[in-house]
Structure formats: structure tokens, C-alpha cells
Amino acid sequence: MSDSYDVIVIGAGPAGYAAAIRAAQLGMSTACIDKSLGKDGKPVLGGTCLNWGCIPSKALLDASHKYHDAKENFAAVGVQVEGVRIDVPAMIARKDEVVSGLTGGITGLFKGNGVTHLAGTGKLLADRKVEFTAHDGAVQVLQAGHVILAPGSVPVEIPPTPLTEGYIVDSTGALEFDAVPPRLGIIGAGVIGLELGSVWNRLGSEVVVLEALEEFLPMADERVARDALKTYKKQGLDVRLGCLVTGAEVADGAVNVTYKSGDEQHSITVDKLIVAVGRRPYTQNLLSNDCGVNLDERGFLFVNDLCATDAPGVYAVGDVVRGPMLAHKGTEEGVMVAERIAGFKPLVNYDCIPSVIYTHPEVAWVGKTEQEVKASGDAYNVGQFPFAASGRALAANDTEGFVKIIADAQTDRILGVHVFGPQASELVAQAVISMEFDASAEDLGLTMFAHPTLSEAMHEAALGVAGHAIHMVNRKKK
Ligand code: FAD
Ligand code: NAD
Prior knowledge:
Largest sheet: 5 strands, mixed, barrel
Shape: globular
Helix content: 25-40%
Mean pLDDT: 97
Structural class: alpha/beta
Bound molecules: flavin-adenine dinucleotide, nicotinamide-adenine-dinucleotide
Number of helices: 12
């Protein structure tokens, strides 16, 4: 092992591994330090996203959706199936296979691109030195030309609900249930609560979600949040807003959860409780006192728009810095930093970060919500198109939801796009591309879309901004 590198990355999640691969592709000698161990106790790459986040949760979402669809919806399209049942251990084992395939893929990409993987813990010292402690305890101080910090985030824990093995779990534990819990409680109606709540609800759990805020999904467009809440409730997620959890006690093989709603005390008894109240930046033992990197008031590593910290030559990317905690945001930051170190001048467009909630229907958006545009005082137009009027959605028997496009009234520039519906996660990419190219709603309306596709709903919503949607009755008559 060399003791000096052009670039040392700490953390091999989607932010760190992408930074390391890009740095190596650009000809820099690169090492990436990561301390994660897989279920088998061996070092794994990919961070939260591949091991305990995006990928395993989507494997369970897809599996549970297939099961639920077969049970509840196949008959409506003339497919009769009998005896559909879920094999939870098989579902979990397959999820693990997907994870190990992908984490092994990163190992292959490191080898192929010439990134040195150092399995252990990294700590930033002064003057771009990094202390590397291998899993066997051996310590070495390495010198870097540049350092990229990408240590990610960990789940927030709250005092009323201390994690208790087998009963009170965080998102990682909720990916490992070996059977469907008959009664499942979830603290937090955020992205994780809704996604994992959907998984176990589809498989048969009675799910109660306790959310502290009175407002559901405050970061989403109000109409989307309203419709999504109605749908989730119809699906069986018992979402209770304005509920502050006061305690949780494991007794007689179950969890008794107490909470306050208004002035009233309530309680529920569940078989498992998932705590999903957010994540916090993970900086434990990452920085020496004299390394020159500062934290902001919320505990994130302080960086500028280019992800540079206060220490020269030291950058930070991903969940550990400001902005949404999303894998793709971290990846783009990692690539930007590697390219900037190599002398290129890319930027991350923080106004164009797509968000997705992988329920069914999915929720996805990019740009501003209608309430944000309204608050800005600028005049705007809205075009909306329901999937119930989409030929493809009808053919697929998947018609819930709509596409909504908000455009500036003067310039027609697209300000925000919100999709609640089938494949919203894929459809929103069209909006991201449009906004990256500063498209107007008219530009999107003048674009040809294949028929019959769900994408036509995006087209029609764009036409609808000026009142031109073809498959709707238009009152604007322009
Ligand atoms: P991480 O992925 O957290 O990786 C950081 C790595 O650094 C870890 O391996 C950690 O062990 C290592 N590390 C930390 N400190 C040190 C140190 N000092 N030395 C060595 N190694 C260190 N995002 C999406 O965009 N889409 C999704 O669908 C999605 N689903 C999610 C589902 C769940 C259940 C969860 C929990 C998260 C999900 N996320 C999703 C969020 C996503 O996982 C994170 O935004 C993303 O993983 C952040 O990437 P990162 O590289 O910044 O950090
Ligand atoms: P979140 O911030 O999305 O939601 C947490 C929810 O818990 C909030 O609604 C909050 O009001 C509520 N809450 C906080 N304290 C509470 C309390 N004491 N009692 C009841 N409710 C409480 O966080 P998350 O769902 O834990 O997800 C963490 C991060 O992971 C998010 O930032 C998200 O971006 C990322 N993630 C993304 C995806 C995706 O992109 N599809 C999926 C999962 C996670």
C-alpha cells in the first residue's frame, strides 16, 4: 500500500465511490477508505444506499408490489391466480443477493478503474493527512493531494423509543424482518416511513404511522400530498398526524407505544415498531481538532456551493453536507469535486434535484411546489393531466394520479413538475431534463411523445399550461 495519493476519499457510499471512480478515471492516484462490513463480516462498498438504503428497500418494494398486484389486481385484467402467498425469508434472501451483486459490482469498478480500496476507518488530520486504521487495528498516516469526505448519515434516534433488538428497529432493522408482523407501528410519516410502511402493509401488516407534524409531506406540492395521503389511507396505512410519541415499552412480546395528540394521551400495541424520524450527518471520529474543517449549526460539514470545506484541498459531499439526503445528489457532488480537482469546471444544479417516494402510485417532483411559487408572489400558470385520461394507464389498469406542471406566467419557463402516479420516478426525468435546458412549457408541448405511453400525460400537462391539452375539455380556448 502506498502512503501518498493524489486523492483520498473517506466513505464509499454513492457520493464517495463515484468521486473515487471519477478521480481515478481522470488519471489521479486514488484511494477510498470505507469501514462498512456486510452481513458476513467482510468489508463492503456502496455505503447506506447499496447496503441498507435505496437498493434493499426498492427490492422489497418491488417484491411486495408484485405480490399485492397478483393478489388484488390481476383478476381485474382477466388473470386468475390462486394460492398466492408470500415467502418472507425468500424475499429477504433475494434482496440480499441483489445487494451483494451490486456491492460486488463497485468492487469490480474500483479494480477496473484503478481505485485502491482501503477497508477500515479514515480520520482527517491537518494538512491533508489521513489516519487510516485497518480493521485489524493497524494504523498508517497517508498523505493526500486532495481529500474528499463522504461519510454519509445515520438514523436519528429519539429518547422515547430506544432501539430494542427484534422489537424497536430503525430502517436497517425494518429491511430484515423474517415474518410479516401482524401489527406494525412506524414513527415518522416521511419517505422511509411511507416506503417501508407500504412494503409491510402490502404483505398483510396492519400499519399505524405516527407523525409529529400536523401537515403531511410538507416538502411536496400540496395537491400531491393531499391526494397521496388519501390513497395511502385507502391502501390501509393508518397515518395519524399531529402525534407526539412519548414512550415505548416492550412487554409480553409486543411494543406498547404511548403518544400525545392534542391534549390527549393515546396508546397502541404493535408487534414491531420502526423509528423513521430522519437521518443525521455522521461525523463521529472523522476530524482531528486541527484539521481545519468546520461544522455548521446543524452538525453538517460546512461547505460552499462547490463542496469545498474551510480546509484548503478538502471537500465534502453527500449526506454529510447541506441539501437533500439523496443518493443522486451525493453522486453528482462527488463527480463534480473529482472533476474540479482535475481542473474542469462543472457545477451541481441544486434547483434541479428530483425527489421520489417509491410507494404505489409513486410520488416524484422537481423544482418548486405551487405553494412555494405562490409565496414568491410571481404570476404562474398550471397545467394538469390525470392518468385516468391516459390510454396507456387505462390499458395497464393503473390510472390513479396526475401530472402537474407549473410555469412562469410571463416567460412560460417551467418552475416545477409534480407527478403522482405510475412510474412517476421515471417520468420525472423528462421534467429534470426540460428544466436543465431551461425549457418552457411550450417547448415540452411542441415535443412529440410516443403513443401510447404514460409520458403523454407529461405532454398533455405541458399543453395544459396554456390551455391546449387535447384529451381534456379546455376552457381557456387559446
Ligand atoms: P452513505 O451512503 O451513508 O455512505 C457513507 C459510507 O462512509 C458508509 O459506508 C460509512 O460506513 C462510511 N464511513 C463513514 N465514516 C467513515 C470513516 N470515518 N471512515 C471510513 N468509512 C466511513 N436515496 C435516494 O436517492 N433514493 C432512494 O430510494 C433512497 N432510499 C433510501 C432508503 C433507506 C431505507 C435509507 C436509509 C436511505 C435511502 N436513501 C435514498 C438515502 C441514501 O441512501 C443516501 O442519501 C445516500 O446513501 C448517501 O450517500 P453518501 O455517500 O453520502 O453516504
Ligand atoms: P424524513 O425527514 O423524510 O421523515 C421523517 C419524518 O419523521 C418527518 O415527517 C418528521 O416530521 C417525523 N418526525 C420527526 N420526529 C418525530 C417524532 N418524534 N415523532 C413523530 N414523527 C417525527 O426522514 P426519513 O423518512 O427517516 O428518511 C431519512 C432520509 O433518507 C430522508 O432525508 C430521505 O431523503 C432519505 N430517503 C430517501 C428515499 C427516497 O429518495 N425515496 C427513501 C428513503 C430515505
